[in-house]
Amino acid sequence: MYYTNLDMHLLQEKLLKIIEQKNIGTLTLREIGQLIGENLPQKVKHHLSQLERKGFISIDKKSGKITRISNSIKSTDLLISIPIVGSANCGPFAIYADQNISGYLKISKRLVPNKKGLFAIKADGNSLNKANIKGKNIETGDFVIVDSERKSPNDGDYIVSIIDGMANIKKYLLDKKNSRIALISESTQDYTPIFIHEEDNFIISGKIIDVVKKI
């Protein structure tokens, strides 16, 4: 089992730990870099800016002083661990939806809701490489964040579903006139829609609420 933090760069994690341990507001970027093993001051500046944007630290523009937003809050308190439960195919469904937890994604609480029922699944395939979920598409190797409590999707929602034991990721459309569900691809390639009758053995695992792009 493994833990992976795709939201926060390793240098950002190191910076947070240093900031929690000592006052680095009087140090130069090069001196800060030496503490975290980074020789390029511009990289240090970039990752400090990212931490400020995410709300972890405050940087005084005049003095350059770097301050934790709350000294009582550690970096681990600002992250949630989302279980990874396997892979799902974005093309012709061919990968079994293994429910055994294979690892965890550690993601900022500011980016996803801190609630029960969230899980991550790794995408395989390119049938949603033109999708738009918070401005992001879905490509092989990306992780989709799924809310398992949202099993009654609206038209246009992206979902993870199980068909005959196989997991797939598609856009959901309900065709009431023909009493069927259409699972749609949005891709640079031409994929035929999957049509499901309302009484078929079809399970909706949850709605996709975000995408964590592969590094």
Determine and state the CATH class of the largest domain: Mainly Beta
Strand order of the largest sheet: 1-5-4-6-7-12-8-9-10-11
Q: Helices and strands: which structural class? A: alpha+beta
* Tally of helical runs: 3
CATH superfamily of the largest domain: Umud Fragment, subunit A
Distance between the terminal alpha carbons, to the nearest Å? Answer: 19 Å
Number of domains: 2
Q: Residue-averaged pLDDT, rounded? A: 82
**3D shape:** elongated
- What percent strand? 25-35%
Specify the helix fraction band.
10-25%
Query: Do you know the CATH topology of the largest domain?
Result: Umud Fragment, subunit A
Which parts are unreliable, with pLDDT below 50 for 5 consecutive residues or more? 1-7
- Output the helix-strand order: EHHHEEEEEEEEEEE
Q: Do you know the CATH architecture of the largest domain?
A: Ribbon
- Sheet with the most strands? 10 strands, mixed
User: What is the gyration radius calculated from CA atoms?
Assistant: 21 Å
Structure summary, number of beta strands: 12
